[in-house]
Amino acid sequence: MTAGGGGSAVAGGPAPHIPVLGRPALDFLNVKDGGVYIDATFGAGGYTRALLAAANCKVIAIDRDPQAIALGRELAAANQRLTLVEDRFSNLAQIARAAGHATVDGVVLDLGVSSMQLDTAQRGFSFRLEGPLDMRMGATGASAADVIAAASERDLADIIFQLGEERHSRSVARAIVKARAASPIATTAALADIVASVVRARPSDIHPATRTFQALRIFVNDELGELARALAGSERILKGGGRLVVVSFHSLEDRIVKTFLAARAAGRGGSRHAPEVRHAAPSFRILTKRPVTADEEEVAQNPRARSAKLRAAERTEAPAHAGNPSDLLPRLPALADVLRGR
Ligand SMILES: C[S@@+](CC[C@H](N)C(=O)[O-])C[C@H]1O[C@@H](n2cnc3c(N)ncnc32)[C@H](O)[C@@H]1O
User: Fold this and answer.
1) In terms of pTM, does the model score above 0.90?
2) How deeply is 263 buried, as exposed, middle or buried, from its count of CB atoms within 10 A (0-12, 13-18, 19+)?
3) Which pLDDT band, with edges at 50, 70 and 90, does 290 fall under?
4) Which of 85, 114, 123 best tests ligand 1's pocket when mutated (most atoms within 8 Å of CB)?
5) Percent of the chain whose pLDDT exceeds 70
6) What's the pLDDT at 258?
7) Which residue has the CA at smallest separation from atom 4 of ligand 1?
8) 271 CB less than 6 Å from ligand 1?
9) What is the mean pLDDT of residues 33-45?
10) Is the distance from the beta carbon of residue 134 to the nearest atom of ligand 1 less than 6 Å?
């Protein structure tokens, strides 16, 4: 995650980017000369630059956002050790193999949106900036406006409750359905106003639309599904002794990382569909008994670092476990079904 509070678009472009927990992330990756590392969330390239500077290593950097990739082209052209790929990080194992690496020494995921995305009004991520209700990190697929236009009231309420942890999800869903019957909800400001009309907040609280926007963003980008598949992919592609580092920004993400690592480190199968796969040897050794958080100095410089949690683990020599990544996810309808307004 990044600097910038989702608010201030700086004159002349999005806010500058400060990587969160960059130092501990790099330390846990244990970067070595000759090593191969996957930066699964290239963003503005903060982690990638630090990796390339830390040792004579190779970096495969991935981002699903074509704008992030375009801004990284110059860095990739100037550095033979960097391979930059526009793709989803759920494909990270295939991407590494296609780049000629059967195994890698480290994988780092710095989850969420970048300040470049958040502070560009046209991307539609921020309720503080008027823009189209888009929220897609990549260039394709349904937008938040598509979901808002088509989803049933029940699906909207479930999405907002499960992915936004919004207590007033039913009122918000009801207000959305009522408003869209009058006219399409096409902008961030329109949705923020609808939410604010039913979720009361004291001036000291977070903006009343925060949780609804988070839920839609996670749903539109399948962020939790992507994370679960990326963890399973990392387990497959990391060599024995290789490191996995994940920086997450809310409890839904952190719970998935924690549950995944606990199951892999305890040597359980981790799948309720395959209860016979019980006593597989541990495929990870957890390096962070408690998650690492930002210190006061970092939080003072970058308020968003406050919610960051870093977990790290080392791959053992044991085979990858058989668990199904979707077992880690909350139960929600698929995007295609939601768009059909079932
Ligand atoms: C918080 S930023 C990363 C910032 C980066 N560590 C830096 O130092 O500049 C997260 C980035 O991950 C990308 N991202 C999020 N989910 C993704 C996914 N499933 N596949 C590929 N990229 C993803 C976003 O587009 C965004 O650019």
Assistant:
1) yes
2) buried
3) very high
4) 114
5) 91
6) 97
7) 43
8) no
9) 98
10) no
Closest protein CA for atom 9 of ligand 1: 44
Q: For ligand 1, is residue 45 a contact (CB within 6 Å)?
A: yes
- Rounded CA separation 93/29 (Å): 17
Give helix 153-164 / helix 169-182 axis angle, nearest 10°. 140
Calculate the average pLDDT of the chain. 92
Can you tell me which atom of ligand 1 is nearest the CA of 39?
6
Cβ(68) – ligand 1 distance below 6 Å: yes
Ligand 1 pocket test, pick from 18, 63, 84, 118 with the greatest ligand atom count within 8 Å of Cβ, gives 63
67 burial level (CB within 10 Å; 0-12, 13-18, 19+): middle
